[in-house]
Specification:
Elements (H helix, E strand, L loop, with lengths): L2 H12 L3 H14 L1 H14 L7 E5 L5 H9 L4 E6 L2 H14 L4 E5 L11 E7 L8 H11 E12 L26 H10 L4 E7 L2 H20 L3 H24 L8 E7 L1
Parallel strand pairs: 1-2, 1-4, 2-3, 4-5
Antiparallel strand pairs: 5-7, 6-7
Length: 268
């Protein structure tokens, strides 16, 4: 089963109108435990941030984290970049219709992108596991941050980070070039790239992995077999989401000794 075509089909459906896209973002926020972890860290960071802030969303995807940040502080300037030109165009169109002129999406290669001392915050959400030369990107991030700026990384760990490795002979997330990071490895790499302080912790413990399988993996597998399953998704989530919600809450409330995800903060 290929994950990326299904993501593309979902994106095309929810991009038909601004209200559908907003609904899509809210659904992602509800269903994805990753969003819970990332938004928690962003809220903590925002409490100490000023109004004249420059943010880089490095690997913006559908733009859901850029949308979250633009709602949090409308005066923040946000540059969101991705390698997929079609997705960048869709996001620019959506944010222009919202009138959020402080947000700009661009097509860019993170291996070649460096803006010295330009950003107060850089997000890298589910990106680094897809880049072979990660050290070059980490160095670019370090140079692009202002003094005291923070890099926030969410990435799979090497503990079942790609859903126990393989799914029917192929990566469930097919763009990945590595199964996940060892928690010590990624911290060492970030220090070697020039970051002064690095903190990493596990996400997606036992409860989080079960929630992900119920709320994300199983629906994606079924959609891969037949698009007709899209029609009964609302009924499926009517029964499954309350369970996933409780599992996510439990996962967020525990300090994990291991987990299939990593939340990493690195400071310049």
């Amino acid at each position: 089963m290929r994950y990326d075509p299904i993501k593309k089909n979902l994106g095309e459906f929810f991009n038909r109108s601004p209200w559908l896209r907003k609904l899509f973002y809210h659904l992602l926020d509800l269903l994805l435990l990753r969003s819970w972890y990332v938004q928690y860290e962003l809220r903590k960071w925002a409490k100490k941030a000023g109004n004249k802030v420059h943010v880089l969303d490095a690997g913006s995807g559908f733009g859901q984290y850029t949308y979250f940040l633009s709602r949090m502080r409308p005066e923040w300037n946000i540059l969101a970049v991705d390698v997929k030109e079609e997705q960048v165009c869709d996001c620019n169109g959506f944010f222009r219709r919202l009138g959020r002129e402080q947000v700009l999406f661009k097509t860019a290669d993170l291996l070649k992108m460096r803006h010295d001392n330009a950003f107060d915050l850089i997000l890298s959400i589910d990106v680094m596991e897809c880049i072979a030369d990660d050290m070059e990107v980490f160095r670019n991030f370090q140079h692009s941050l202002k003094e005291g700026g923070m890099l926030l990384v969410s990435t799979p760990s090497d503990i079942n980070g790609s859903d126990e490795g393989r799914n029917e002979g192929s990566w469930f997330i097919e763009e990945q070039v590595r199964e996940g990071y060892n928690i010590d490895e990624i911290q060492e790499k970030l220090r070697a790239a020039g970051f002064s302080r690095v903190r990493a912790r596990y996400s997606y413990g036992t409860m989080g992995r079960l929630s992900w399988k119920l709320s994300v993996k199983l629906p994606m597998l079924l959609l891969g077999y037949s698009k007709l399953f899209f029609v009964i998704l609302p009924v499926y989530y009517l029964f499954v989401y309350p369970v996933s919600f409780v599992l996510n809450m439990l996962d967020m409330g525990v300090v994990h000794r291991s987990g299939s995800g990593l939340i990493v903060k690195a400071y310049k």
